[in-house]
Amino acid sequence: MTDNEILQIFRENSALLEGHFILSSGLHSDRYIQCALVLQHPKVAERLCSELAAKLRHLGATVVAAPALGGILVAHEVARALGVRALFTERQEGNMTLRRGFSLTPGEPILVVEDVMTTGLSTRETMRCVEEAGGKVVGAGALIDRSGGAADLGVPRAALATLSIKNYNPAECPLCQSGVPAVKPGSRTKRPA
Ligand SMILES: [Zn+2]
């Protein structure tokens, strides 16, 4: 599938919005990605994640790990496609941790995946966490890389689509300056039609 075909699936599910948005960080942006709206359809999740798995299969991982919550479904579906296990890390008092009795054998090859990679920070935190637990990270993946490929991870990586989405400080936001009203995605519940 091409980047455009992937992005079309996101648009069809209202998961890629174009306009003027206030991100949870407070920054403004002209595009907003809400992967949960794509992943709510298991068949679509399975299809997208099997595409991602195909790009990472050669790395030979036996575990797929992801940061909770956003990455859990992606790890699960990528692991299903690869026939390996999936686990997730979660934040406890600000630190990424491996809980719930998940364990790794020493040197076990691991893929770290996310739904959307923005700066790569949560991927890097997850990589560190599973390496502290004894695993060896052999690659990383995301459905959408919105860093334009700039996030530096130090391992082979793959994404289904790469976007370069700019974030703006509100004071410098060109969309604010042109008078387009800003919206906060997800703050309103949409009623079924
Ligand atoms: Zn703005």
Provide tags for this entry.
single chain, 193 residues, alpha/beta, six-stranded mixed sheet, three-stranded antiparallel sheet, 6 helices, globular, binds zinc ion
Q: What topology does this entry show?
A:
Elements: H1 3-12, E1 16-22, E2 28-33, H2 36-39, H3 42-56, E3 63-67, H4 72-82, E4 85-92, E5 95-97, E6 109-117, H5 121-132, E7 136-145, E8 157-162, E9 167-168, H6 174-177
Parallel strand pairs: 3-4, 3-6, 6-7, 7-8
Antiparallel strand pairs: 1-2, 2-9, 4-5
The structure holds zinc ion.
Residue runs with pLDDT of under 50 for 5 or more positions: none
Which sheet architecture does the biggest sheet show?
6 strands, mixed
Mean pLDDT comes to 92
Number of DSSP strand runs: 9
How many helices? 6
Strand order of the largest sheet: 5-4-3-6-7-8
User: Globular, elongated, flat, extended or rod-shaped: what is the shape?
Assistant: globular
Helix content bin: 25-40%
